[in-house]
Write a structure and sequence with these properties.
single chain; 750 residues; alpha/beta; Rossmann fold; 4 domains; six-stranded mixed β-sheet; 21 strands; globular
């Protein structure tokens, strides 16, 4: 229930759906308008009329793919129609953009007539650089793709067929090497005779599998010569002259078992009957033909892959189509041919055998990957996939004569690296860093539905162990209402908690000379302030970190934290920071939430703590102390305060790259720094910006967030004795999960 709710909210919150069109040129002035449209637009029109290839120079065609579907074979949902399939096609567009920076329009065609679909797609050729066919049922999908490839002069690629084939083939190459078998010697049994199955069979044959060693099965059993029931011309190509009639018979003695069918299609008895060191790719989704646990229970020499991310060796199409189209588009290929598919297969197989960098391990919770039975296919979030597959595809296109543009492959790799210049899923890396050593997170607002849903995600993703504080009955009822099993959560009611008296006594000891009586401490702990209760849990070691503020003003969360946990010894104050994720990169902005009018001492503290936070999150800090002046250009006490702070930081942290006072544009524009201020300690743009007061910092981060399309992650509270972090009033569930991950990473460093 909660997953359904989360999925529907994800798609419906804010701007509906998952995609939007963003202009790449300015259109703010009359001059811009005259260039974007009439009369200026006539010039590229005339140029394209004279030379059609100029469309790649003057329009988005060269980076634009159509994801085309009629909704007749959507995911595991079947024939749900073109309109119902639209969310999937939008999702495909997100993956194209996220992994390879390819732009997509999704095209849903309301027709089951193959010839109508063919004609509609043919008419789209002037618009697009490539066509990705998606979720069209077999056998019509074969005919549609064949006809389009014959008649169109841009790449046409049915991902349901070829994507699965390419990824599984890469895994097969590596699996065979690990078990010491050659592809020309093995016998492969393939259960399923749809689009993906037939493409997998063809690609395996292209890799060297002997056609006579391949047995294909469908719901009627083995596809054999002379069979008439349930046959078509595409299945007929794989009909064997064999006495075998059932999947069970075919599996006996087989080296490889491919499943593109249904849950439970492979039985333990089939696994037991296979040859030594059997390879099983159970790729049905969401549930495989047999699970790894079931297969390994039968015999220990099985090497397995599935379509699921919670098992090793996931056959995931996202490892293929974004990068294949990237390479094809960048050389303006007219088709995606067999050589290009094989190039992608070999690139993926070879990448798996390379040493896996720490950045990939961090992206998956610090799990170390190395070539072996549990790692035969690269991970989707491995940034090297783009750098390996796209150039391999482009090279194959050029070598086989289907590329209309030849490129320098070394420079091409550099261009691809530049595509990865933005945040590189920074938050995902932080989440996985948290998952490597989960901590106990106390949520004092445990009755709030958003907190409960976030706690479920925190628990399911392994980020931490949530503790929900509040009225136990209300929390339980709320969890039931949104479909979460209360038995999975730790729920603590301060009114009945055995430790409440201990916490009250400790609070009284802390605050008795601040006007707090023991009876008032008891009221605060048991009834009045759940933030005090949660902070006391952290203080006493019953929780590792606290996250609160979804339903309260910022000071109402910080005040109890300061009273119970306090700031670090030697600091004059606590400080606040936001991490801003923009297309240009990641910036840390401080102080944006706490110090209203800081002294030089407080500014220096802010800078040092912000730099430490950046390093905890594995970003090397370059710090700019901001002002309205540049390096003494204005004599004013406010500018002098910032200069003094810079000196204090340099004395305390001589190894930290920091400079100021400087204006904001000086801090973030390389050209200004290098041309006007070559003496600056900053040789490139700063990524940690320290504001001279709360007013400027708070205004800046909110403007960046709402007008600059930056993702604001925070506030991150710095300088507390123990990790306490504050939510923004009204944060979304995803914001809470992000902050929970940051809180856990903070706790890991204590």
């Amino acid at each position: 229930m909660s997953k359904k709710t989360d999925a529907l909210l994800y798609h419906s919150t804010g701007r509906k759906g998952k995609i939007e069109v963003v202009p790449t040129k300015p259109c703010r002035t009359a001059q811009d308008l005259s260039l974007a449209y009439s009369p200026g637009v006539a010039e590229p029109c005339l140029a394209i009329e004279q030379n059609p290839d100029d469309a790649f120079q003057y329009t988005a065609k060269g980076n634009l793919v159509a994801v085309v579907s009629n909704g007749t074979a959507v995911l595991g949902l079947g024939n749900i129609g073109a309109l119902a399939g639209k969310p999937v096609m939008e999702g495909k567009g997100i993956l194209f953009k996220r992994f390879a920076d390819v732009d997509v329009f999704d095209i849903e065609l309301d027709s089951e007539d193959p010839d109508e679909i063919i004609r509609a797609v043919q008419m789209l050729e002037p618009t697009f650089g490539g066509i990705n066919l998606e979720d069209i049922k077999a056998p019509e999908c074969f005919y549609i793709e064949e006809e389009l490839k014959k008649t169109m002069n841009i790449p046409v690629f049915h991902d349901d067929q070829h994507g699965t084939a390419i990824i599984s083939a890469a895994g097969l190459v590596n699996a065979l090497e690990l078990v010491g078998k050659k592809i020309e010697d093995v016998r492969l049994v393939l259960n399923g005779a749809g689009a993906a199955s037939i493409s997998c069979a063809n690609l395996a044959i292209s890799l060297g599998l002997k056609r006579e060693n391949l047995i294909m099965c469908d719901t009627k059993g083995v596809i054999y010569k002379g069979r008439t029931e349930g046959m078509n011309k595409y299945k007929e190509l794989f009909a064997q002259d064999t006495p075998l009639r059932t999947l069970e018979e075919a599996a006996n003695g087989a080296d490889v078992l491919y499943g593109l069918s249904v849950k439970g299609a492979f039985t333990p008895e089939m696994v037991r009957s296979m040859a030594a060191n059997p390879i099983i790719f159970a790729m049905a989704n969401p549930d495989p033909e047999i699970t790894p646990e079931q297969a390994h229970a039968v015999r220990g020499d099985v090497l397995m892959a599935t379509g699921r991310s919670d098992y090793p060796n996931q056959v995931n199409n996202v490892l293929g189509f974004p990068f294949i189209f990237r390479g094809a588009l960048d050389v303006r290929a007219t088709v995606i041919n067999e050589e290009m598919k094989l190039a992608a297969t070999r690139a993926l197989a070879e990448l798996t055998r390379e040493e896996v960098p720490d950045s990939v391990a961090r992206a998956y919770g610090n799990v170390k990957f190395s070539f072996g039975r549990d790692y035969i296919i690269p991970k989707p979030f491995d940034p090297r996939v783009l750098l390996k597959v796209a150039p391999a595809v482009a090279k194959a296109a050029m070598e086989t004569g289907v590329a209309r543009q030849h490129i320098d492959l070394d420079k091409y790799v550099e261009q691809l690296e530049a595509l990865q210049g933005r945040s590189k899923e920074t938050m995902r890396l932080i989440i996985n860093k948290a998952k490597s050593d989960p901590k106990r997170i106390v949520f004092p607002e445990g009755e709030h539905p958003k907190i409960q849903r976030a706690a479920q995600t925190v628990l399911e993703e392994g980020i931490g162990q949530p503790i929900l504080v509040g009225n136990a009955q209300k929390i339980t009822d709320g969890l039931h209402e949104i479909g979460i099993d209360p038995g999975l959560m730790t729920i603590i009611d301060p009114a009945s908690c055995p430790k409440s008296e201990e916490y009250a006594q400790e609070l009284f000891e802390l605050r008795q000379r601040k006007g707090l009586t023991l009876s008032e401490a008891r009221r605060l702990i048991t009834r009045k302030s759940r933030v005090h209760f949660g902070c006391m849990m952290v203080r006493q070691g019953d929780a590792d970190t606290l996250l609160a503020g979804i339903d309260a003003h910022y000071p109402d969360t910080i005040r109890p934290a300061l009273e119970v946990i306090g700031k670090k010894e030697g600091l004059s104050s606590v400080h606040g920071l936001y991490m801003m994720v923009l297309k240009k990169g990641i910036f840390f902005l401080a102080d944006t939430t706490v110090c209203i009018d800081p002294s030089s001492e407080e500014l220096a503290e802010t800078a040092i703590l912000a730099a430490q936070t950046a390093r905890i999150l594995e970003i090397e800090p370059q710090v700019a102390m901001l002002s309205f002046a540049n390096f003494g250009s204005v004599k004013h006490p406010l500018a002098a305060k910032v200069r003094e702070a810079v000196q204090l930081v340099k004395e305390r942290e001589p190894g930290l790259v920091i400079d100021g006072e400087m204006q904001a544009d000086t801090a973030v524009v390389d050209e200004i720094l290098q041309q006007s201020y070559p003496f600056s300690a900053l040789k490139s743009a700063a990524n940690v910006l320290i504001f001279p007061d709360l007013t400027s910092g708070n205004i800046c981060y909110k403007l960046l967030s709402h007008l600059g399309n930056a993702d604001a992650i925070g506030p991150i509270l710095m300088g507390m004795n123990k990790p306490v972090h504050v939510l923004q009033y009204g944060d979304d569930v995803s914001d809470i999960v992000n902050m929970a991950a940051i809180a856990v990473v903070d706790a890991q460093t204590r």
